[in-house]
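Take the subject:
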Amino acid sequence: MPHAKQATPIASGDPEPVRSENHMAREGKSENLVQAHPRSVLITGASSGIGRACAARMGREGWRVFATVRKERDARDLMDEGTPGLQTILLDVTDGDQVAEAAEAVGRQVGSGGLHGLVNNAGIAVGGLLEYLDTAELRRVLETNTIAPLTVTKAFIPLLRRAKGRIVMMSSMSGFSSTPLVSPYCASKFALEALTDGLRLELWPWGIDVVSVQPGAINTVIWDKARSYVEEKLQNYPADAFEKYGPLLASVPETLAGQRGVEAEEVARTVSRALTTARPRNRYLVGRDAQLRRWIERLPTSLRDRIVLSRMPKYGQERT
């Protein structure tokens, strides 16, 4: 991804992004805000969907929210909602320099109180037939969905230690169940689950809980984005791909158009629970489809595969 912008904090209530990275410190607000908002949380990917719902909910619950977005327009939209205690930060989570600057800016704000929560939500959806997958697309989804959450977490661990804070990784039911056409996305979430398990054990001595939230289908604009992405990719597939996988490829846009999941607010409630309950679970599943998929994945692999294949259109030649 391009490194076009520097990480730019936006003070609460300001309609336009603040150009100086030292703006928040110069305002002299840090000490008072720490007292007024004893709990603070940083949420990545807050421009829409789950991230936006999480930012709004945590703000309503009295948290001091640092919400990251990539575009100034999204920052203004968030600020216009008037969520209490919310500040936005322009941040490309795949840019290590921007992440480091964001950590410094938040550190100046929270001071010795530290950061009580980190929600690694930013992510992208990438899919396609593995036989025709451009490996650059796989690298892109791994960079955003797997490497970036680790980059962000590493930068904020010192602040989390001060508060014995918690880390929430926004995973997916795709983090434990891979199916055709979405396996690149699933690979990024499987890998994120591995990092989550490692972090949970490594950070245990400091009282930092690391939690995975695994939603199923969510009723957000992500399905419109996914459908547009798939339709664009289908146009670039060679003719022989349709000869081999035609019925499977033809079913994708219709399947995505018919996706109906839980509301993003339900995921936000789960994130709030993970951040506030005395003893959080290691993993939270959200949605009936996620529960069903977890049950299917516990079956013997051969039976699991037969169930998945039974729900797919017939394509290719009959196996003998």
